[in-house]
Please model this.
Amino acid sequence: MRLIREEGIRERVGVVFDRRRAELRVLLPAARIEHIGSTAVPGSLTKGDLDICALVEAATFEPATRTLAAAYEIHQPDNWTTTFAGFIASPEDEIDTGIQLVVAGSADERSFIGWRDRLHADPALRARYDEIKRRHWDDGVDAYRAAKARMISEVMGS
Model:
């Protein structure tokens, strides 16, 4: 696997996002569904996957978690909190899909949606983030994720 430019897979990712958003609207009708991650930021480097954030009210988080667990594979349960749960959908059109269930208004929403919006608004920040990805790509998945998380935490102040 290698890093690629977002525009190289934009159309395919868009089609998969539209299908997944429709699925999620059936499963979680009250959720706000957002495309997040690098494929949501024009011109960024990506490993070619799709990340989706499903935002729900705090009162519906637990039932929504059960609903998504019945439909998708649970992902990294050790990272779950009272405002975040992760899932993986079966690859579609060779696009791996992660679904992040998040309580609306939580710090997790600011991390996912806020980070995406910051990258959209600041090309220099996006370039710096891409450089972190390049520098740590060959270090293994854990080191790659940790380097990205450090930068996000530094920039977002969390």
